[in-house]
Specification:
This protein has 2 helices and no strands. It has 109 residues and is mostly helical. It has a domain of 61 residues. The model has no long low-confidence stretch (mean pLDDT 79).
Length: 109
């Protein structure tokens, strides 16, 4: 089930990118596009592409949510680090061998 939904999700994503790229640029923010005739001209084609983009976007979000739900169901419950008891190191009394040795250096005059 997850594989089928993932393939559908990928096909919708590719279709969404293609539909957005086919649409005519209206802003001309960089000074390119939006001129002359396009591949699809007319108000009806623009309206159809806008609706198709909206439907593909809704389908994309629906498949995304579906994949998230499936992944959450497959996940194994884990315990938090905060739920586990703390491991304490064994306490040993310090010995004289544990003290650092400081060399005595004579003062030069």
């Amino acid at each position: 089930m997850e594989t089928v939904l993932l393939v559908i999700h990928l096909l919708i994503a590719i279709a969404l990118v293609a539909v957005v790229l086919v649409q005519r640029s209206e802003g001309g923010a960089l000074g390119i596009g939006g001129g002359g005739g396009g591949l699809m001209t007319g108000r009806g084609a623009a309206n159809a592409l806008t609706r198709l983009t909206a439907y593909l976007a809704v389908a994309f979000f629906a498949t995304s949510i579906g994949l998230t739900i499936l992944a959450e169901q497959k996940r194994q419950p884990s315990t938090s680090i905060l739920d586990k008891p703390a491991k304490s190191a064994p306490v040993t009394p310090p010995t004289s061998a544990d003290k650092p040795v400081v060399p005595i250096v004579p003062k030069s005059q």
